Amino acid sequence: MFDQLKHIDSELLLWINNHNSPFLNSVMWQFSKMTPTVLLVLLIAFFLYKKINLRYAATYLLGCALVIAIADSSSNITKHSVKRYRPTHNLILKEKIHKVNNYEGGKYGFFSGHSANTFGLTFFTYLFATVFKSKYRKLFFIYPIIVVYSRMYLAVHYPSDIVVGLIAGFIAAIIVNFIIRKYFLKTA
Length: 188
Prior knowledge:
The chain is an all-alpha fold and 188 residues long. It has helices spanning 2-18, 22-31, 35-51, 54-82, 113-128, 134-139, 142-153, 159-184. It has one domain: Vanadium-containing Chloroperoxidase, domain 1 (Up-down Bundle), CATH 1.20.144. It has eight helices and no strands.
C-alpha cells in the first residue's frame, strides 16, 4: 500500500509539472517566492490598524511571526530528520521533470515549508482577523492554494509534502491563536 501511495504521489506531481507553459512558468515562479506573502501580511496588518487600532495590528504581526517560527522550524527539522529527496533530486524522476529557471530547491523536501507557512498564516488570519466578514475571510485561502500548486508545478514538492505542510500550518495557527488570545488580547 505504501508503494502505491508513493506511486500516486509521483504520478500526480508529474502530471502537474508536465502541464506547463511559458506563461505559467513565469506566474508560478513569482507565486513561489515569499515576497507576495510578506506583502499580503503587511497589507492585512495595515487594514487592521486602520479599522481597529495599532495594538491589534501589532498583535496580528506578532502572531504571524510566531506562526512562521513554528511552521518553518518544524518543516526544517523534519526535512533534515526524514531526508526525503525532493522530486528534482530523485534519481528516478529528475529526468522526467520540467524545470523552471533550472530551479531544484534544497536537497530534502518533506514537508513543504511554503505550505506550512502560507496555510499557517492564512488559518491564523482567518481565526484572528474577525473584522473581515466570514465570506471574505474564506477567499484568503485562494492564495495559499496557488502557492502550494506552484511548488508542485516547479516539482520541488510532492503532493504529500504539501498536505503534511498544510496540517503543520494549521496546528501552528491553532497554537498561536490560542497564545495570542490568552496572553495578548485579554479583556479586562
